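USER: Please consider what follows.
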Amino acid sequence: MLITHDTRCALDAVVDLVNTAPEDGTADGLADLRALEAFVAGHRISDVGTLTELDLSAVRRLRGRFAAVFAATDTRIAAGMINELVAAAGTTPRLTDHDDYDWHVHYFAPGASVADHLAADCGMALAFFVVAGERERLRRCEAPDCRRAFVDLSRNRSRRYCDSRTCGNRLHVAAYRARRKEAAG
């Protein structure tokens, strides 16, 4: 599956957005306006203007809707959710070549809020996966103490953990120690 630079940026943004949600006692990654500003700057989200508390509330609501797409067990249900997100954002596809990026497509309308911007661009990035028959690549980490979202871009669709160096390694070490303990009797 060909993933363009702007689609990859949108995928990174939607995964990071979903992973800002407070889970199992973790802090909210979008606790305040400053955190939203850092998120926007970190993902180089353009054309959003001055952010407000209303933007923060809208992005938090959007985060939950994207989390539901990752949790969907059926492609038809995920597609319906993505359609709702993209339609509500008032998409207006247009070509642009801003900020030293080559030509790419923005799906948000000029002057759109940051939530509509994310809903349109990230929603379309997820839509491309549904169209390509690759929705199962939108996953949650299988580590029991982690449920972070990620997109499995491995060649054989075998990635199970959000990060093999942390979650994956921790589980492999635990399994190894359990085997050694059992063998020792």
Notes: The chain has a mean pLDDT of 89. The chain is about 50% helix and 5% strand.
